[in-house]
Amino acid sequence: MKISRRWIQNFFNDELSNTQALADALTFHAFEIDGIEPYSGLTKSRILDEILDVKVTPNRGHDCLCHRGIAKELSAILKLPLKQDPLGKKPELVPATDAVSVTLEDPALSPRYIAGYMKNVKVGPSPDWLVEALEAMGQRSINNVVDATNMVMFNLGQPLHAFDAGKLAQKDGKYGIVVRRARAGEKILALDQKEYVLQDSMLVIADGNKDEAIGIAGVKGGTPAGITEATTDIIIESANFNGVSVRKTAQALKLRTDASSRFEQGLSPELCAYGMQQVVDLIKTIASGELVGFADVYPAPQGPAYAAVSVEKVNQILGTQLTGTEVADAFARLGFAYKEENGVFQVTVPFERLDITIPEDLVEEVGRIVGYDKVPAVPLPPMPPSSQASASFSATERVRADLIKQGYSEVLTSVFSDKGERAVLNKVDSVKPYLRSNLTDGLTEALKKNIPNKDLLGLKEVKLFEIGTVWKGDKEEVVVGTVSEKKQAEEKALSEYAADSAPVQDLPLSQTERYQSFSKYPYIVRDIAMWTPARTTPESVQELIQAEAGELCTKVSLFDQFQKGEKTSLAFRLIFQSFEKTLTEGDANQAMEKVAAKLKEKGFEIR
Known about the structure:
alpha+beta, five-stranded mixed sheet, four-stranded antiparallel sheet, 17 helices, 29% helix
């Protein structure tokens, strides 16, 4: 979030410290600062401002993605009173009007919607001070009405939008706004001049009198009711939308905006009234206009929230020795109303602080405002002299290492089976409703699946093992099972391999290999054999074949070798496979022709 130092100064009577000092204060008590950049204004002739890039954490997005939120933080950290908190006094949205009706089809997705109706607005360029303020935020000036809505969003954190009332339909001289789900396949041309195809999980703002979508709720306005210089009457939207719904819509449409990034964090519906009052006052100032009135639909108003914590709990969690007076001071600096009785603070949580619900939240607030430097350093407890591995862990590691040395590969098969002694209450599927009573069934199935791929794996024989739990005879135990092409599956209880507990450092280390992804496309096998001079090494021929076969050749392995007189016969197996497509016989044949030609060029006789 970009924060203007000059903008922040407007919240205080006292002159603020230099920008670096403000950055340090926020870093040590609230948020990291990614950088400070100078701003030279419209003329670019001199530095007018400095912009802090504040890394607001997700838990504070509902109140600190705006200048008021950061000013409130600095007020608490620096012990500087705000000149006037724009969220201090609840606004009275008067007069009410029935010239605009508002319908919320699903209040769970749109808890509140305020429509402010203004007439005789003069749309035009914004004053320089407003253009500069928005430009410092990286926001291009559009016109005075749209700029006013953006200004209030950056100031208070409440997204707003203005519709051209003249482009909306009237019925009996009245306008209608409906917040509803989009219809599957419904289209809207947004203000970015792109057409978006909507899904029925998305929320739209619609002209209720002709059932036409005029905006994507919480994300982007539409061109059907866009503000132009010809606009005279406007309907201002200050609403609250479900954060999850807005996030999913923005992601699905690949359309993330300043508005959506704020709604995603979850905003208090109480904030709508403050944003509406401020934007109406600003539009009156810079675009004239007459307020007709407000239509405010708020089915389930946000009630007061409370949290309590004791001084004892604060000190227990922080490891401090703070007094009740110090805890009270932290709450006062934050602007939290509270009552204290016998060392327990009952705090009335400000409506915008949706992150404070439990005692630990209050402890965090006290800790960061008092300063984490006040938390004393405590030495760590001494480490135990040595650690011992459990007997079962020791046995498992020893068995695993021994089997790997014998050429076995470890597999993990499903614990669910189509037969067994113990049925599962919450079945994963209807095919395997039991817990397995042995490992041999799963190992046998795994062997059958892997044998056809042994060429690809570069194996002469597939040998598998598994260490896992089985449920048999009302007993649960860990067993080890093995299977190979030459030996049927068998298993034994791990205890029959078992060893005494041993120090961790004495256990053998399992060999590890870097994982490589596999192709989902089938492979092709080709063999080639040749007579070579007796002193020719298989490694040199293998390198030659690999280089000539190309990228589609994923493996070359020697599978036969014998000597006859002064010549040596070498036979290699080549595996061809693509990560992008199914190879044809022609692909493999073409590569093999190149390999054969190269071998003949070297003087080898192809068998």
